[in-house]
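pls design
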């Protein structure tokens, strides 16, 4: 109890004032950079199953190995805390701060983390199946060996996130920002990556069978030796990509931009190509058995003229962008 205490000129470096009573404390000449040490923390005993809390401060706390499931935590500060091994199924974290929190091996099934700050959080081994992570900020987070089955990551910010050996079956990554992510040993077959922003990503040699990349932004990405059988690449921006030896059998390529890409030895067997763009693309030794294509895929002058007219009449058609914007007069894609 430090109520009304005189701490003038006191040295308080590294002092823990968690749960201390500090009303009326005299802090004259205490360095302002250390005044934050006096912020009174909320009582950890408030955290339990079915809790309903608002605007509390549990930052820098040990809150591990607890059952706080089915709770409502509105605008709670959990930043830099250890919440590992907690049971937190169906918890609503609306507006809360979970940045740099240790969330290893936690249960977050069906929890609401929409728009939540999870920057730098460690979610290794966490079960996030069915969780709502739409619009959440997970920059630099670690999700290795986590479970995201059926999770909603629509529009999530996932820059530099580590997804090693993650279960993502049924997860929705539509519109997610995924620059620099690590996808090592993660099963991406039939994944919904529609509308993702993922330029420069390395998919080399991966099995991407049935993946949905419709309207995805994947400029300069590496798909060499990847399996894109039955993939949806409609309206995808794949400019300047590496597609050497890629398998695009039965893939859908409607309004797809391959401008400046390397498709050497690519298999387009049974592929449906419509209104797609291949200017400056390398297509040596491609396999086009039973491929459905239109004038935009052909290289003779007449078909090039027909294709140009078609693309100009359809404002949603590629090209979207190029390495040769000035030379080719491409319209830039937002």
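designed seq:
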């Amino acid at each position: 109890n430090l109520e009304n205490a005189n701490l003038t000129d006191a040295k308080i470096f590294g002092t823990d004032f968690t749960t201390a009573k500090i009303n009326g404390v005299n802090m004259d000449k205490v360095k302002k950079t250390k005044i934050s040490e006096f912020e009174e923390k909320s009582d950890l005993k408030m955290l339990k199953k079915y809790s309903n809390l608002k605007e509390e401060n549990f930052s820098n706390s040990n809150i591990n190995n607890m059952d706080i499931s089915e709770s409502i935590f509105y605008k709670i500060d959990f930043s830099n805390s250890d919440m590992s091994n907690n049971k937190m199924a169906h918890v609503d974290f609306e507006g809360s701060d979970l940045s740099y929190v240790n969330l290893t091996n936690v249960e977050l099934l069906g929890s609401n983390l929409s728009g939540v700050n999870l920057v730098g959080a460690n979610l290794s081994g966490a079960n996030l199946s069915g969780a709502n992570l739409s619009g959440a900020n997970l920059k630099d987070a670690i999700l290795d060996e986590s479970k995201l089955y059926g999770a909603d990551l629509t529009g999530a910010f996932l820059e530099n996130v580590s997804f090693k050996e993650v279960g993502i079956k049924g997860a929705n990554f539509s519109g997610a920002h995924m620059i620099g992510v690590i996808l090592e040993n993660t099963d991406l077959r039939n994944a919904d990556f529609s509308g993702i922003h993922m330029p420069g990503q390395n998919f080399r040699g991966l099995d991407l069978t049935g993946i949905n990349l419709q309207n995805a932004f994947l400029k300069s990405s590496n798909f060499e030796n990847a399996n894109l059988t039955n993939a949806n690449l409609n309206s995808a921006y794949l400019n300047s990509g590496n597609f050497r030896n890629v398998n695009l059998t039965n893939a859908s390529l409607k309004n797809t931009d391959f401008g400046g890409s390397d498709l050497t030895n690519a298999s387009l067997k049974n592929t449906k190509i419509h209104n797609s763009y291949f200017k400056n693309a390398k297509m040596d030794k491609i396999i086009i058995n039973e491929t459905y294509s239109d004038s935009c895929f052909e290289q003779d002058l007449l078909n090039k003229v027909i294709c140009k007219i078609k693309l100009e009449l359809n404002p949603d058609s590629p090209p979207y962008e190029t390495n040769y914007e000035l030379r080719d007069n491409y319209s830039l894609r937002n």
